[in-house]
């Protein structure tokens, strides 16, 4: 009896303390939200404050935005409507979902600014803070001009045969044992292709030894992203990190040193051989046209941050084709007889539409990178002051039933046959909007289409039963949702 009493009493005590802690936390979060709302008034013409979730300790909605983007995009729109506010740390971000608001916001896109370190804090800044995608003004122009010539439409078309050869070799060596049928986690099967193809566009051909070195450094960079940036908290402050997590800071330094040495080595070994982009870039860095961090962070952006983006997109493309035998067959028919190099440049092929449909259904991020206009804007009826971060809910735009129809969540590439390109402008999030559109869009598109062309020539694709049952399962270690599904590759008899 006594024991039971003690057990009950202590249970009650623990329960009460727990409740108290929780309610104080919720209470504190509410108070902080009230303060933040007062500090950053965003109201409509009736003086109604913009809705949105409460600030949450310690990172606001910063991490959910990436790690749980898909669920949150739907939940928030459901709870708060088409225009609402979230918190990145304590920085407000206005989320827009309506095409007309996207148009209004981007009407002065030339003068837009990206938020410092994307409002993601210190650790992120150490990896990517000075990269092309996140800096502004004259520094951005200089950096964009530095890399742009490599990735223009015409430059990519001149390089098609190089990309094509890499795609063919990659597909031919997909299975070192050359089995007639095998299954692989799609992401593992494809990821090295866009990675080395992109790296080659910067460094020229890489030896096996150089490839292994680069891959190893990429793993260091991805690990820091996964372990520290995506846990937020103390890693958003440099002082706190140095004090509380010296091991993380050491890991960061190891990566930074390795990355600089690798690029210096690339420059040294290539400078005699003429013009590969790394040589020019390094020279311009030494002349002071771009800073060392700008150069190294942009290389990180293009090669490492994009590894997740490209792996995600290419994996989903392969998975959707594996899922839909009919479309797969039709794409193969489209390919028969034509040259891969010609087919990959057509914007009106079924293959091109499969690529767009993949970007539509699986944008690499549920919310775009925060950006601000230097002018006041009225978005969704709310007066958004100049210089406030705005993000586009990519998922809501791409799944919008009003534009895309009732089957907006299904893979149906043929839908693009009846959409006018002009209408796509603010109804599809693919490579971003306005001036800060993706630098690598032509390159990325050609690279992925060529890969699929060779893949479909050689293999029938299907999904394992487990993959079919849980198609949307994604890993949580990356900032981009990478699918877990396994694809079965079966050699075609031709
Ligand atoms: C299918 C693959 C790809 C997709 C879906 C994609 C998507 C995007 C998007 C949406 C943005 C704009 C982000 C924003 O709002 O700030 C962007 C920017 C950027 N992308 Fe890509 N990208 C892809 C491949 C690549 C490749 C292969 C490269 C390598 C050259 C690349 C380099 C960049 C750079 C440097 C920026 C920053 C541009 C700037 O701010 O001036 N991307 N990308
Ligand atoms: C909204 O608030 C401002 C200042 O607080 C006031 O001048 C204005 O009349 C109010 N408008 C409405 C519609 O209540
Ligand atoms: C917005 O930011 C720009 C550049 O940082 C600055 O020049 C301008 O004064 C700011 N505008 C307002 C209204 O704060």
UniProtKB/TrEMBL annotation:
<feature type="binding site" description="axial binding residue">
    <location>
        <position position="438"/>
    </location>
    <ligand>
        <name>heme</name>
    </ligand>
</feature>
<dbReference type="GO" id="GO:0005506">
    <property type="term" value="F:iron ion binding"/>
</dbReference>
<dbReference type="InterPro" id="IPR002401">
    <property type="entry name" value="Cyt_P450_E_grp-I"/>
</dbReference>
<protein>
    <submittedName>
        <fullName>Cytochrome P450</fullName>
    </submittedName>
</protein>
<dbReference type="GO" id="GO:0016705">
    <property type="term" value="F:oxidoreductase activity, acting on paired donors, with incorporation or reduction of molecular oxygen"/>
</dbReference>
<dbReference type="InterPro" id="IPR036396">
    <property type="entry name" value="Cyt_P450_sf"/>
</dbReference>
<dbReference type="InterPro" id="IPR017972">
    <property type="entry name" value="Cyt_P450_CS"/>
</dbReference>
<dbReference type="Pfam" id="PF00067">
    <property type="entry name" value="p450"/>
</dbReference>
<keyword id="KW-0408">Iron</keyword>
<comment type="similarity">
    <text>Belongs to the cytochrome P450 family.</text>
</comment>
<dbReference type="GO" id="GO:0020037">
    <property type="term" value="F:heme binding"/>
</dbReference>
<keyword id="KW-0349">Heme</keyword>
<keyword id="KW-0503">Monooxygenase</keyword>
<keyword id="KW-0560">Oxidoreductase</keyword>
<dbReference type="InterPro" id="IPR001128">
    <property type="entry name" value="Cyt_P450"/>
</dbReference>
<dbReference type="GO" id="GO:0004497">
    <property type="term" value="F:monooxygenase activity"/>
</dbReference>
<keyword id="KW-0479">Metal-binding</keyword>
């Amino acid at each position: 009896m006594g024991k039971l009493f003690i057990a009950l009493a202590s249970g009650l005590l623990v329960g009460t303390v727990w409740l108290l802690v929780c309610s104080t936390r919720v209470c504190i979060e509410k108070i902080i939200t009230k303060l933040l709302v007062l500090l950053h008034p965003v109201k409509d013409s009736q003086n109604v404050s913009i809705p949105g979730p409460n600030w949450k300790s310690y990172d606001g909605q910063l991490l959910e935005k990436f790690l749980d983007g898909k669920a949150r995009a739907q939940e928030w729109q459901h709870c708060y409507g088409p225009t609402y506010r979230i918190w990145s740390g304590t920085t407000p971000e206005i989320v827009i979902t309506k095409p007309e608001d996207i148009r209004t916001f981007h009407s002065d896109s030339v003068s837009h600014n990206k938020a410092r370190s994307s409002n993601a804090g210190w650790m992120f800044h150490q990896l990517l803070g000075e990269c092309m995608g996140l800096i502004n003004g004259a520094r951005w122009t200089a950096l964009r001009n530095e890399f742009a010539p490599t990735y223009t439409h015409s430059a990519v078309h001149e390089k098609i045969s190089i990309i094509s050869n890499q795609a063919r070799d990659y597909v031919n060596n997909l299975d070192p044992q050359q089995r007639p049928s095998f299954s692989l986690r799609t992401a593992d099967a494809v990821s090295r292709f866009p990675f080395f193809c992109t790296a080659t566009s910067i460094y020229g051909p890489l030896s096996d030894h150089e490839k292994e070195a680069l891959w190893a450094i990429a793993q260091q960079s991805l690990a820091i992203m996964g372990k520290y940036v995506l846990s937020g908290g103390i890693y958003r402050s440099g002082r706190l990190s140095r004090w509380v997590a010296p091991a993380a800071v050491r890991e960061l330094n190891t990566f930074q040193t390795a990355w600089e040495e690798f690029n210096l080595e690339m420059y040294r070994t290539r400078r005699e051989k003429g013009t590969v982009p790394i040589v020019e870039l390094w020279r311009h860095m030494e002349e002071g046209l771009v800073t060392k961090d700008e150069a190294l962070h942009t290389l990180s952006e293009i090669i490492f941050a994009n590894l997740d983006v490209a792996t995600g997109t290419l994996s989903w493309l392969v998975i959707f084709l594996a899922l839909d035998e009919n479309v797969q067959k039709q794409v193969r028919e489209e390919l028969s007889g034509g040259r891969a190099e010609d087919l990959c440049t057509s914007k009106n092929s079924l293959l091109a539409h499969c690529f767009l449909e993949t970007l539509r259904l699986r944008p690499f991020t549920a919310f775009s990178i925060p950006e601000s206009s230097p002018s006041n804007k009225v978005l969704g009826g709310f007066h958004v002051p100049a210089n406030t971060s705005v993000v586009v809910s990519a998922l809501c735009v791409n799944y919008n039933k009003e534009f895309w129809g009732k089957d907006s969540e299904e893979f149906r590439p043929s839908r693009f046959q009846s959409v006018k390109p002009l209408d796509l402008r603010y109804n599809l999030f693919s490579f971003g909007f306005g001036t800060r559109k993706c630098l690598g869009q032509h390159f990325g598109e050609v690279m992925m289409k060529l890969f699929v062309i060779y893949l479909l020539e050689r293999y029938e694709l299907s999904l394992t039963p487990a993959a079919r049952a849980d198609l949307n399962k994604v890993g949580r270690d990356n900032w981009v949702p990478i699918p877990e599904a396994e694809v079965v590759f079966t050699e075609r008899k031709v």
